[in-house]
Amino acid sequence: MEPLALGVMLAVGENPLERVKHVRQMGFPTVQMGVPPPKFATEEAKAELRAALAEAGVIVTTVFCGFAGESYADIPTVRRTVGLVPKETRAVRLDRAREIAQFAKDIGSPRIAIHIGFVPEEPDDPDYPACVETLRQLADHAGSLGLQVTLETGQETASTLKRFIQDSRRDNVKVNFDPANMILYGSGDPIEALDHVGQWVVGTHCKDGKWPTEEGQLGHEVPLGQGDVGIEEFVTKLFNLGYRGPLTIEREITGEQQTRDILMAKELLEGIRAKLLSG
After folding, report:
1. Which of 80, 104, 144, 261 could bond to 63 as cystine, CB 3.0-4.6 Å?
2. Which of 148, 142, 130, 143 is nearest to 90 (CA)?
3. Average pLDDT in the 204-230 region?
4. What is the mean pLDDT of the chain?
5. At the fourth CATH level, which superfamily is domain 6-278?
């Protein structure tokens, strides 16, 4: 894979094979992908997906964990429903994340990514040790498969994420850095956050957003280059920290406008990438 290879977040829907073709038609050599429907969990279906990826020349850099019952409606809802932090669903979701790790290995992806949820900000929070232990268990299982576990940025501050990674004491725990999420959740300046967690970044979402304007509400996502991230400064800082991994575009809308915005983001990133690699 070339340095700073461009990619796109692949929402697989009901027909991941068609989505893979669409990605390649747009000119992307890499994807992060969600988990396909259960019918793609069979060995035959996974072999078919591997063949489609190979034929298209598309590399799956990450498989993203998602769980039934998650909702991103507003910040209180995210706290209650997202990731492995909510106690009521933690055990079931940990088992599901292990299954997703196996799927990732079977299709040739080197890592999984996960929104782990709102990790307690204070290490003396009664639930903090259990969250650390849950991450360790997932990391150990992924490690047994030769995979990394990447934590998607957003819900927690950079200092909390740094401490959480360090407390896990697992070398295969890394970061999938989404700068827009930090803005959408109001959790800190994403470019400054790289000073805390840049050494662990192995993947990134190139996404943009505007800060929240109301307490308890999320900010809103906008096309890349039209928000508060400062995407050229962000990618340049990543590059200067030694990052050479993929630049994965994510645009969380659907339909023809999504495709137009993705292609516009692709053109923007191609210019940034060319400048960095030629310098």
Report:
1. 104
2. 130
3. 97
4. 96
5. Divalent-metal-dependent TIM barrel enzymes (3.20.20.150)
